[in-house]
Amino acid sequence: MARVDNPDIDECGCPAVEAELKAAQEELAALREKLAGVQEWAGYVARAVAAHRDGNAIMKKAGDLADAHKRAKLRAQGSS
């Protein structure tokens, strides 16, 4: 309410806004940590596939599936 009363005030002293910001920052940090874990795991999977005797064929198939999925998403976006 302080900003409503005085629009020239430098900062908002609203505890609710500060609490929401802190919660959002904590959630972002947790998501970044999860992403790092998934990226690390994906790296191990990619190395295992590359070491497999059929690794090139597996990677090609994975790329083809990813491309098909991307095209399907684009088609779905265009029709909505």
Q: Overall 3D geometry?
A: elongated
Topology, number of strands: 0
- Tell me the helix content: over 70%
Q: How is the main sheet built?
A: none
- The rounded Rg comes to 23 Å
Determine the mean pLDDT. Answer: 90
Low-confidence stretches: none
- In N-to-C order, the SSE pattern is HHH
Task: Characterise the protein shown here.
The chain contains three helices and no strands. The chain is mainly α and about 80 residues long. The radius of gyration is 23 Å and the shape is elongated.
Task: Give descriptors for this structure.
80 residues; mainly alpha; 3 helices
Provide a short characterization of the protein structure:
The protein has three helices and no strands. The protein is elongated and about 70 Å long.
Topology at a glance:
Blueprint: H1 2-5, H2 15-51, H3 55-79
Helix pairs in contact: 2-3
